[in-house]
Amino acid sequence: MTEPQSWTLILGVLTTVAALMSLMTVWVSRTIRTEVGSLRTEMRSEIGSVRTEMRSEIGSVRTEMRSEFRRIDERFDHLDRDVQALTRHVFGRPE
Are 44 and 50 in contact (CB under 8 A)? Predict the structure, then answer.
């Protein structure tokens, strides 16, 4: 272990291992970054399509609810007219 060739060989192996570890770390980091970026892009497009679909669905539900509320308002108007007529008839008040 006192020979310079042994130490040179040990340092060469350690340097190679350290270089390979750093190279693998860079490759894995770039791969993860690329995959996360593509996933982010895909998720944004999916969320955009869901938002578009939800807007159209909400619009149709809003239209349907407005028409139903108009029908209910008409029924209340008829009911109010009928109650007023019954009140005039029962209590004999001309209004």
Answer: no
